[in-house]
């Protein structure tokens, strides 16, 4: 263990600081429900964007990305399209402002603006989106919980701790014990201070993380100077053919086994499936988690768009500075690292192993503090979203609609503690970080896409269709792992088709949504898509109404935004590897796209 007293002091000071933030902001958070869950909708877009980016910089995802970068090299930039990462571009260009115009507090509450408060399927659609949100939140909480434990285990080996513990812990569950300890700190400040403490904590964590990431990148550049990386042919090329064609046999044979286990060998097919699923997922808008809550917490639709665009700009270059830096160090000194897990080589251990081996005192403490903060920020943001759905959409809607402010805050505290407890139990059943990730992005979110896409673009789609589309998709997502083996992504088209059939059948099994609700939604949100009958009625009442004719421009901006996002991802990789000509081309592409988007997006933002 290389953790010095100085490093430990930095971590302890940070943890104490987070607890104090929650304690000092508790009174501000207790003013009312909106202040607790959404910061009173008064927080500026750049702070919300920084907080959202900070929440996305989670420790489990970063461990996974370092493992990907090590094995797949530059081609690893495409694999996070599984989420898909480019959904932020769709949100930035138009979906965030559409969502914010509702002025709702949660995704479930938003449904009332689209489907109304009564009618067949309305209550069911509300309930199913709450259930989906909670499944997703609990999955992400368990995902972060497992990743954190694996991370801490590297720095504080269990054999040093076990003599002071009055009970035996199986090696397989050591990460879970560590996860519980640090989860309690995140739970404390997020439950006490609500959104106010989450945003302030995220800002502090982002500053710490940025310093740590750039320090790692600098250290890697120093170590790499005058050396070449021991990697197979094609590792440094971001482009690919039908097959991956990376052969690690002569270098690290276990890397070939990981590629086979991941199922990414036919990379062309894998990429097409990611793109196909990703476009539909992005058209569906933000999922009901901390990302959506930050959009709904913004001060205006215009600020919601700015906030979402800001996320990619400040997240990707910083995060990938760390990812490529640790990858370079791990490749140069792989045989000096302990990356063995219970089941053999565990490439997810590269991140903590490289940090432990190569960072000097002080920098090590800063990086560990930032990564602990990364876990705590993601955990607290997700916990806040879960609290919002349970308190706002279950307790206040069905149990106690007239609850006092004091009762609402107490319920938020209780719900927060119970949610954390359930997520910890789920974490004990998780095999590893990747298994949870693949289920969330490949299966569960596959069942979400069809219904949440149609709600924006098709006027006839109603609450009954939303309910049956969601229920069919979620049911299939839960059953498929027992039927199909291998990568869940490859089963996604069938999952999508089942959900789509449920959407269409459910829609035509019930009458259309009340026209007054549709007209109000169309006037307020101003979506483009298949809204002709509603548009005709709105024009009849208000001849001066201007329909949204920005479909072509929005899609043009989306394409530019995705290209820019890829450039922001690969930019720090080229810097650390000092690939001068690719770096120059990347910078030039970014400058040209920024110049165009200033005119086609920024100057045209409206509420």
Structure description:
A hairpin with a 2-residue loop joins strand 1 (340-341) and strand 2 (344-345). By secondary structure, the chain is an all-alpha fold. Strands 1-2 form a two-stranded antiparallel ribbon. The chain is globular and about 75 Å long. The mean pLDDT is 86. Helix content is 72%, strand content 1%. It is built from 24 helices and 2 strands.
Q: Which SSEs are present, and which pair or pack?
A:
Blueprint: H1 5-24, H2 26-29, H3 33-38, H4 45-56, H5 59-72, H6 87-100, H7 107-115, H8 122-155, H9 158-161, H10 174-224, H11 253-262, H12 267-283, H13 290-296, H14 301-332, E1 340-341, E2 344-345, H15 350-358, H16 363-399, H17 405-427, H18 433-457, H19 463-483, H20 492-508, H21 515-525, H22 532-541, H23 551-577, H24 580-600
Antiparallel strand pairs: 1-2
Helix pairs in contact: 1-10, 1-16, 4-10, 4-13, 4-14, 4-16, 5-8, 5-14, 6-12, 6-14, 6-23, 7-8, 8-10, 8-15, 8-16, 8-17, 8-18, 8-19, 10-14, 10-16, 10-17, 12-18, 14-15, 14-23, 16-17, 18-19, 18-20, 19-20, 21-22, 23-24
């Amino acid at each position: 263990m290389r953790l010095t007293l100085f490093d430990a002091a930095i971590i302890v000071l940070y943890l104490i600081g987070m607890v104090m933030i929650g304690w000092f902001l508790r009174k501000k958070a207790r003013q009312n429900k909106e202040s607790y869950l959404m910061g009173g909708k008064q927080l500026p877009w750049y702070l919300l964007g920084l907080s959202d980016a900070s929440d996305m910089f989670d420790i489990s995802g970063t461990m996974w990305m370092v493992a990907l970068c090590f094995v797949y090299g530059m081609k690893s930039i495409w694999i996070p399209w599984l989420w898909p990462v480019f959904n932020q571009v769709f949100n930035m260009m138009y979906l965030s402002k559409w969502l914010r115009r509702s002025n709702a507090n949660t995704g479930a509450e938003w449904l009332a603006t689209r489907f109304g408060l009564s009618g067949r399927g309305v209550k069911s659609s509300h309930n199913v989106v709450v259930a989906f949100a909670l499944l997703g939140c609990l999955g992400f909480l368990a995902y972060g919980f497992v990743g954190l434990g694996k991370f801490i285990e590297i720095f504080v080996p269990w054999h040093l701790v076990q003599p002071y513990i009055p009970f035996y812990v199986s090696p397989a569950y050591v990460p879970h014990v560590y996860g519980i300890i640090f989860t309690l700190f995140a739970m404390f400040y997020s439950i006490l201070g609500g959104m106010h403490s989450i945003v302030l904590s995220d800002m502090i964590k982002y500053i710490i993380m940025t310093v740590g990431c750039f320090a790692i990148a600098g250290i890697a550049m120093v170590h790499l100077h005058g050396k070449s990386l021991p990697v197979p042919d094609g590792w440094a090329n971001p482009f690919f053919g039908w097959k991956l064609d990376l052969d690690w046999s002569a270098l690290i044979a276990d890397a070939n086994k990981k590629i086979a286990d991941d199922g990414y060998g036919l990379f062309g097919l894998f990429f097409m499936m990611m793109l196909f699923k990703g476009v539909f997922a992005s058209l569906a808008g933000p999922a009901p988690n901390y990302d959506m809550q930050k959009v709904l917490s913004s001060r205006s639709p215009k600020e919601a768009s700015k906030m979402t665009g800001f996320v990619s700009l400040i997240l990707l270059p910083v995060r990938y500075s760390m990812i490529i830096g640790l990858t370079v160090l791990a490749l140069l000194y792989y045989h000096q690292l302990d990356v063995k897990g219970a089941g053999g080589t565990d490439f997810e251990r590269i991140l903590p192993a490289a940090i432990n081996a190569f960072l000097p005192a002080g920098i090590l403490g800063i990086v560990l503090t930032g990564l602990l903060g990364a876990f705590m920020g993601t955990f607290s943001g997700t916990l806040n979203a879960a609290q919002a759905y349970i308190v706002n959409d279950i307790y206040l809607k069905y149990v106690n609609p007239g609850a006092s402010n004091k009762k609402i805050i107490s319920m938020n505290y209780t719900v927060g503690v119970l949610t954390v407890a359930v997520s910890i139990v789920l974490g004990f059943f998780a095999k590893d970080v990747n298994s949870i990730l693949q289920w969330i992005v490949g299966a569960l979110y596959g069942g979400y896409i069809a219904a949440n896409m149609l709600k924006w673009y098709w006027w006839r789609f109603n609450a009954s269709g939303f309910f049956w589309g969601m229920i069919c998709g979620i049911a299939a997502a839960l059953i498929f792992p027992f039927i199909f083996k291998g990568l869940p992504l490859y089963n996604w088209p069938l999952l999508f088709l089942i959900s789509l059939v449920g959407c269409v059948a459910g829609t035509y099994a019930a009458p259309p949504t009340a026209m007054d609700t549709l007209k109000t939604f169309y006037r307020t949100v101003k979506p483009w898509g298949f809204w002709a009958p509603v548009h005709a009625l709105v024009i009849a009442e208000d001849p001066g109404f201007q329909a949204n004719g920005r479909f072509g421009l929005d899609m043009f901006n989306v394409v530019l935004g995705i290209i820019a996002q890829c450039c922001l991802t690969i930019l720090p990789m080229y810097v650390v590897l000092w690939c001068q000509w690719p770096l120059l081309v990347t910078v030039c592409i970014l400058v040209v796209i920024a110049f165009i988007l200033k005119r086609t997006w920024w100057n045209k933002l409206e509420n």
